[in-house]
Amino acid sequence: MNEPRPTLDLEHLGFDRGAQVLLARATRALAPGALLEVCGSAPALGVELAAWARANGHAARPLTDRRWTLEIGRSAGARRAGAERAGLPEEPASRAPQCWGLAARGALVEAGGPEFGFRLCEREELWTADEATLYRQALAAQWDPERAIPWSAPLEHSDELEDALVEVLTFLIENETAALLVPARFAGQTHPHFRETLQLLAIQAADEARHIEVFTRRATLRGRALGLSTVGGRASLKSLVDEPDFARAALLTSVLGEGTFTNLLGFLHAHAPDRCTAEIMRLAAQDEARHVAFAMSHLAHHAQADATLLARLASAVHQRHAALLATSGLSVEVFDALIALAGGSYQPRAIERGHAAVVELLAQMDAGRRMRLRKLGFDARQAEQLSELHTRNFM
Amino acid sequence: MTNKIVLGAVAYDAKVVTIWDGFQRWFASQGLEFDYVLYSNYERPVEQHFRGAFDVAWNSPLARIETERVARARRRTPRALAMRDTDCDLTSVIPARALIDGEVDAACMIDGNLAAFSNDGTLPRSATRVLAQTAKYDHCNFTVLDGVDERSVARFRELLLGMRYDDASVRPLMDLEGLKAWREGRTQGYAQLERACDRFGWLREFLERMQAA
Ligand SMILES: [Fe+2]
Ligand SMILES: [Fe+2]
Questions:
Q1: B93 to chain A, minimum CA–CA distance in Å?
Q2: Which of A3, A39, A95, B177 has the lowest CB atom count within 10 Å?
Q3: Does the CB of B79 have a partner CB in chain A at under 8 Å?
Q4: Range A7-71 classified under CATH 3.40.50.300
């Protein structure tokens, strides 16, 4: 005896009302060669059913004027047959194949198609389980410059002190631009399978865009001319922007550069001549702390998986130091402006206080860098040496 | 000797280049040297086929009939090699739509377009009625004339018929070309069109020009 044949009753549905949805659903589970009986009362359903069947590799044969047999073609299910899962939604694969492209993690990826060119595709160098948390924290800590900054707070300090502040802000804007370009460039090279890494790099770039905005807005708030962009500063930043290796760039830009900047921004918060500047520095310093935490997290993870990483990172610091030997480091203008801001005026006593504060800042920056290098696994002597070799330019 | 095939086809759309480039790469990976010549109209390729400009013609139904007629006059032998599964057993329909002022709007189209226009809402079926449907007919096929390199043609045909939709390396090509499988070539599906051409004298001018009338 024949088994009862599966039947699909389309009732009054034609192809103008979604008949193909029910047909696709009914045929999806059927193997090549299987028969499906289809009936329906839509006008000229037979014409459209035959055309649909032909286009989908099946054969439709009329039984009556309202009933047809559909024979499933051999191409049925082919698209899914060779497909593979792009990892698990909760945990990425250890290496993401280029053919997965932009597929959602955990998606069923049809075989074939173009090879993408994502240079960063190894889990161990990119991804840690902490990243989802770091991303959520970054998202929750976003602030709107318009509402978060007291732009109309009174500016009661002298033009001379304002010029010192603008000198420092000019320096900051240039550095923030490097801090934006570095993650933005690596975002474009990161296999999107490592979604959290991509999200963190993107939000980091957005943070830096905001820093550029608020520093610029504060620098021009009193209509003073901007300060100096030095050759030494540009040479130092170029060496960051040009660094092609993700881990080395993370060490130089984030662990050492942005790490040093958290101290600098904290200092500027404490010595800001007005409330607006103080608030900008406080909020920017918070963002920078997250940027440092992201780099620390994936470098520590990477160093555990790859015993040669620390040596590579150390050589990055040495190479950058050697490349910048002939440059002048932090500009005298910025250094002096920091002293004036910390002193609060150009009175000798004030300058003396400011100078002491800046010397103290440099010591704090050094201590911070050594602490972070130790956390990554460098010993005390290496940490001291590498911190010492970090650019005079802070970033 | 490597197997070589030059195909003649019509550039009816820019995607034709993508399609035959794709086939060219795939055939090359299978050891068949494949190239193609594109024409901007449907008659010149028929003429050029007889001049030996290429080995295989990707013939539309009309081009196939023209080839048949010219071949008969010149004692040549055309052969249908293969065709798309989606080109077999088409019909055309005449759907009509009653307009508000009582006039009727009708058109002739392939049944597949009727299904597509229904699906995307262009032709709401509540307002449309199918007035007539033709008998089944076939669309394009690959045609060769006698005198081709038989070994290359056999290889070309074998590769086509062996293409499988579940092979990820050819599926995008088959999707672009709109088929699930290649079938053996056949020519019975052009009889309706040939009768209609004769009835309206459609081929006369072309056949005279080809000195095949
Ligand atoms: Fe920043
Ligand atoms: Fe940053």
A1: 8
A2: A3
A3: no
A4: no
